[in-house]
Design a protein that fits this description.
Blueprint lengths: L3 H12 L4 H12 L8 H10 L4 H25 L1 H12 L2 H14 L2 H8 L4 H10 L4 H56 L1
Keywords: Membrane, Transmembrane, Transmembrane helix
GO cellular component, one term: plasma membrane
InterPro entries: DedA_domain (IPR051311), VTT_dom (IPR032816)
């Protein structure tokens, strides 16, 4: 059943929209605070749709994400109990927050670098860095390095692959989509 390929085509059209960089900036910013969808979901198709602007898109995503990280840090530092804690409970992130605190105790600033580059939920670590009252300047520098590395890597891979990669991805998108759904269901069942 081909339900993912029409969506893929639509996403590529949206990615070429003149306001797409603004949407990317907003998404990157809020993803660093609370948004559950990773920025790469928008950055990758934008870089595929307009490879000549891939580096610019990576810069937009990086700057907006690090600024969002600063807001997440401030929320954790200044408004944890009245604002952040109820939101964490509503989203069911209590275990993630506890894990993040444990990792901060064990690895310090290096956990921010890991979270800013990897698929770990960066937002949890921005807020936790504030809660743990980490030094702000090192937090910002490590966030900048990790986010830039991640977003420039995504943009670079899409730019390198270009039209060939877009066509190859379109060819396999339904298989990839169903595989992702099956993996998500399996992960849910395993963690339950």
């Amino acid at each position: 059943m081909k339900i993912f390929s029409p969506f893929y085509d639509r996403v590529l059209r949206w990615a070429a929209h003149p306001h797409a960089p603004r949407y990317l900036a907003v998404m990157s910013f809020v993803e660093s605070i609370f948004w559950p969808v990773p920025t790469d979901v928008m950055l990758a198709p934008m870089a595929l749709a307009r490879p000549a602007r891939a580096w610019r898109f990576a810069l937009v995503a990086t700057v907006a994400s690090v600024l969002g990280g600063a807001v997440g840090f401030a929320l954790g530092w200044l408004l944890f109990e009245p604002v952040v804690l109820p939101f964490v409970e509503w989203m069911g992130y209590q275990a993630k927050l506890a894990t993040a605190k444990t990792w901060f105790d064990s690895y310090g600033i290096w956990v921010v670098l890991l979270a800013s580059f990897s698929p770990l939920p960066y937002k949890v670590f921005t807020v936790t860095a504030g809660v743990m009252q980490m030094l702000f300047l090192p937090f910002m520098l490590v966030s900048l390095v990790g986010r830039a590395a991640r977003f420039y890597l995504v943009a670079g891979l899409m730019r390198l692959g270009g039209a060939r990669m877009a066509e190859k991805l379109r060819h396999y998108i339904d298989w990839l989509g169903w595989a992702t759904v099956l993996l998500a269901v399996a992960a849910y069942l395993a963690l339950r």
